[in-house]
Amino acid sequence: MLTLYSYPKLFGVADNNGYGLKVYAFLKLTGVPFIHQNVFDASAAPRGQLPYIVDDGEVVGDSGTILVHLIRKYGLTIDTALTAAQRDTSHMITRMLDDLYWVMSYSRWQDEQYWPAFRDALLREHPRLTEQDLGKAQEFNSRRYYYQGIGRYVPADAYARGVADLEVLANLLAGGQYVHGPQPTSVDAAIYGFTANILFYPIETSLKRFAASQPELVRHCHAIHAAIA
């Protein structure tokens, strides 16, 4: 059976990382049977990054590549009805979520206003983790943020980037149940991966406050959350 390896669950969602939760939601929406293994150490993953899957002995990493693999291997029809223009829109949304990822991650691991609460939540929900484990992870992430660029922003400017991304998502979702109509497609799983990790986050970051003020984002997130329960 297919196994999904992704980061630990937190705050009521199956993975506290947007990319792993994206794959989890996609598998649930498409009905592909799988086992979910939550891990913290990514050293065994392709390119040292989670999530990844092991499917009949084949190891596939990167959330986007995983979805392509699953669609091809299992003949999934979740995106079959999309037009070329809709596929382009999905692609652009997916790339924008890559930008949102850095801001969301920054809010947890870098911003000293929120880092202690995030650290304590991980320790509380996952007793096998230690403060030393998380301290090393914070140092590693700080280096990533610096070289990516978001780590050179002051918090207000970093969150302005994330809020701008969330505002675009809210606008795209206005007036419809899902991005491309009445049924969810793979891009809806991707959006959920990030909005659930913001809206279910009990600490009032700037991202959480803005997302919670957008009815379309809240509606979409809870619709997917209920569909994959």
Trace the largest sheet across and list its strands. 2-1-3-4
Largest sheet: 4 strands, mixed
| Mean pLDDT across residues | 96
CATH topology call of the largest domain: Glutathione S-transferase Yfyf (Class Pi), Chain A, domain 2
CATH architecture assignment of the largest domain: Up-down Bundle
Strand content bin: 5-15%
- Regions with little confidence, pLDDT below 50 for 5+ residues: none
Number of strands: 4
CATH top level assignment of the largest domain:
Mainly Alpha
Keywords:
single chain, 229 residues, alpha+beta, Glutaredoxin, Glutathione S-transferase Yfyf (Class Pi), Chain A, domain 2, 2 domains, 4-stranded mixed sheet, 9 helices, 4 strands, globular
